[in-house]
Amino acid sequence: MIPEPPILLRRSVAWLIVLALVVLAIVAAWAYGKTPDLRRGAALYAQHCASCHGARLEGQPDWQIAGADGVLPAPPHDETGHTWHHGDAMLTDYIRRGGQAVLDDMGVAMTSGMPGFGEVLSEGDIAAILAFIKSQWPPRIRAIQTERSGG
Fold first, then answer.
1. 62 is in which domain, residue-wise?
2. Closest to 87 measured CA to CA, from 142, 140, 36
3. 83 and 31 in one domain?
4. Global model pTM greater than 0.85
């Protein structure tokens, strides 16, 4: 017959289990807060981006050819465009400050019609939009863009 463990040991084990569950809940809540919500990203994309970049991320026709005003049409954000060619830091900056500010800083002689959304969208909003866009790409494209983002 196996003797029953002392009451102090049983209580210690019970408290360790409770502590482990609390730590697990805290870690899960932290991780959830760090993971952008794709539904939220989709809604924000529909509200702020789709009017130019298309509801299906298809962009505007002839997006690689500047219009009569010298402004390039909005490019697609699907795998046929070039969004995935850029890292997250550049994409975030482009959304926050607008295309022209970023292109000017880079010394690129192009005219962008992309407005800045830094006054409208939070960093979390921008991250959610980018997460939604990336979720629409094939795995190979996501992997390439992740590598370009330093991840």
1. 39-148
2. 142
3. no
4. no
